[in-house]
Predict the 3D structure of the following.
Amino acid sequence: MKLFHKIFLCFVVIFGIAFQAAGVLLIDYAYENAIEQEKKYALQQFQYNKYILQSVLYSEPDLLQVQKESPGSLGSFTTPVALYDQEKNCIYSDLSIKPAYLDFQERKEGQLAFRIYQKDRNSCIFVYDHVRQGEGEAYLVTQTDISSVVETQRNMTAYFQRIYLIIVCIGFPLIFLLTNLLTGSIKKVSKGARRIARGKYAERIDVGTKDEIGQLAADFNQMAEKIEEKMSQLSAAARAKEDFTANFAHELKTPLTSVIGYADMLYQRELSRKQVKEAAGYILHEGMRLEALSLKLMDLFVMDKQDFMLENQETGGLFENMLPGMRPVCEKHGVQLHTDIEEGEIAVEFDLFKTMVLNIIDNAVKAECSDIWITGEKQQTGYQISFKDNGKGIPPAELGRITEAFYMVDKSRSRKQHGAGLGMALVAKIAQLHAAALRVESDGRSGTTVRIAFGLTEGGRDEQNV
């Protein structure tokens, strides 16, 4: 059963029961109140008639005996009355309704007894008690008609039922509209959920209320935004994997084709020493490219699978240990290395940090620069290391892609220098592991600057896991 039907039925049942119960209770209250008033009136009339009877017996002590022998009129009573002797025999009655049974023994001494009696559409209250005056005594019964009260109660009940039917006929459409209004917002949320399930992740819900349903819609919209964002990330990740696979296959195809071709030529043909040396040189060159590619891919895979321990180290000593490994590479290509490292402290994993620095230096050398400047300086938010060269630079339009795997600004130059387009991808990954901010600046003409900003190290804590 749908929520709309559940709410509608609940409203109908509650409304019907509550209205019916209220009407019945109100009519019963009015009837009971009217009966109580009639009882008081009947008791008053009994007292009047009792006084009348006692007055008659006072003036005529033998009246009851005479009445037994010769029934006649006893006097003028205010209501119909009946007299019964000690043996419960009726000696006088002008009652319009003869009671089927009156138990004179059920009354308590000093209290009046009464009984409500109904026959056909006639209703009345009988009040009775023992009356004694001198030697005369009898049971006096008075009758008070309450047919109008009972008839009024019946009329009120019938009138209420008609009103109830009219209100129900009017109330059902109103309940239907109210239920539809309450569930309308939920239907909007449900429709939005179904559209998102069909792939429309940009779907949003506009409810416009500030109640719980409005809050639900706001939460749903927030969830939809997160889903859309996550789907965009997943799509981007899927495209990145596809690009990575395609680029990897392409980078493997070219050197393998050369290696296979030259190896086949060496195997199939008789070549001069010069030709053999030339073919072997091509095989060596492409093999070195494959080796560089495999080593850098291994580094990327290892960084995704392994936890590293960061230790706080002095920047001066850190670069002092790395310079002997960097200078030979620079001297081989005729590049001057300049360092200006301000004393400070950063949290690093030494081998990763060294790999990052060497990749940045290697990229600068391949850009055909003549000088590389490495500077380190303290900042309010931490410590920044800058690498600046005067090489060919990077076009500003391509700065956003240089950290992509296999991306090369100058593909022909990179392949000649055994490049695989993974250097800056490694740098970006290592900077991420160190929670450092990487920024690359270049105008495409006068060199490139790579800035790496490390956060403040925590005092009293020398190492942390990443």
Summary: The first strand starts at residue 81 and ends at 84. The chain has nine helices and 13 strands. Residues 411-419, 459-466 have pLDDT under 50 and may be disordered. The first helix runs from residue 3 to 59.
